[in-house]
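lol ok so funny story. i was supposed to be doing the assay writeup but got distracted and ended up predicting the structure for this chain instead. priorities right. anyway since i did it might as well share w the group, maybe its usefull for someone
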Amino acid sequence: AVPAAQVVASGALLRKGVMVKDGSALERLAQVDYALFDKTGTLTLGHPRAVNLDRLDRTQKQITLALAQASRHPVSKGIRAALLALNIEPACLDNIAENPGEGMTARWGEKTVTLGKPEQSGDHLSCQLTVGQDILVIQLHDEIRPDARTALTLLQDMGAAASIISGDNIGSVSRVGTVLGLTAQAAASPQDKVEAIARLSADGHKVLMVGDGLNDGPALAAAHVSIAPGSASDVGQQAADAVFTSESLMPVALSVKVARRTMEIVHQNFALAIGYNIFAVP
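and the output, tada:
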């Protein structure tokens, strides 16, 4: 009654670009009534395009590349890809460190160099590069995932409310929340995300967490069920119950829809099996 339906559903989702790790995840997906979304790399595509690198000289580009390639943040990946496309080679830096919520720091000779966390600036994200006393601003643009509004509407039509919880600054998070019509909590630490899930769970909600970064790992593990995009960090993918590979956000809503239909079929199978046994076994 159960495995047959789960195998068929998992195969159907796999063809749609969603890998569900086990059958219990489908059961838990079917129960979801609240969805929490990270922002960067989850509601957005997660590979921002740098739009003003021509303002940096070659040395500054080399320092930026060395800092960016030491980070797994989606913004750093976007900067790194743009610089590699310009045939830039990384500078030799010492003591490179990533400070959660702050960005990257290192030593370049006698100077301290930093690549700060992204902040919203108008319609763009911006990262502040410092080389000693020199300060430069790198601008990037990160697009919202295709079909995001449609996917969120489908979730709401199925009775699952949604909101944003992100470690990014309030300006950046508010912009995406306004575009998608979602309430949002900004500047959230990994512990804040876990506590938000605990509060919702205490109120009786079955929480779906959708996130991609290192700081989402604890929340993905704490949620009733969790989904990560294929671009997520290794920690995020391992902690999640399912992974979707499409750039669209629709697979998230589709997963819940298919899971609910699967459980309906499971219940039908139970009824048929009970009926068969009542009449056939005697």
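Residues 7 and 23 are 8 Å apart (CA to CA). The chain has a mean pLDDT of 91.
back to the writeup now i swear
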